[in-house]
Amino acid sequence: MFREAVALRQAVSPQQSQAIERQFRKQGFASLLRDNAEEFKKDGALVEAARCYAQVVQKDEAIAMLEGCFQHRCSSMVTVKAEPDFDVLRSDARFQSLAHRIGLQ
Fold first, then answer.
1. Helices 59-71/93-102 angle, 10° precision
2. Buried/exposed 17-51: b ≥16 CB within 10 Å, e otherwise
3. Residue 1 DSSP code
4. Is a pLDDT exceeding 90 seen at residue 3?
5. What mean pLDDT is predicted for residues 95-99?
6. Could you read off the pLDDT of 48-57 as tens digits, one per residue?
7. Between the CA atoms of 5, 7, 13 and 14, what dihedral angle is there, to the nearest 10 degrees?
8. What CA–CA distance (Å, rounded) separates 102 from 41?
């Protein structure tokens, strides 16, 4: 699906699409996820940033983003327990505590 994503992106911004494809070829998908996480974080999209961090197993960053979202009362927090992107965090006591405080346990 990477090729389809790049093709879709190219329709909007050919230069950005080419940069994404070069980065993917040289540094892999994890590099793209880390960069996206930083962009989401900068833009205040904390759950999206957490999702990216979790997928590259940067648990501390992922939990920190979820905690920030909890503090800001993000409505998107209600699904974090069910989202597969957060599977890597489920055994972490900090994630379990957060899920409890949200009311998901």
1. 20
2. beebbeeeeeeeeeebbbebbeebbeeebbbbbbb
3. -
4. no
5. 91
6. 999 999 999 9
7. 130
8. 21
- pLDDT for position 94: 95
What is the C-alpha to C-alpha distance for residues 3 and 103, in angstroms, rounded to an integer? Answer: 39
CA atoms within 13 A on the CB side of 86: 26
Span 15-34, average pLDDT: 77
Q: Does residue 63 contact residue 98 with C-beta atoms inside 8 Å?
A: yes
**Token pair of 19 as six digits:** 């940069």
Say which residue the tokens 């992106």 belong to.
9
What are 16's two structure tokens? 């950005």
Assigned token pair, 73: 């009362």
> DSSP label at 76?
G
Structure tokens at 51: 């999702």
- pTM comes to 0.76
Q: Quote the longest CA-to-CA distance of the chain.
A: 45
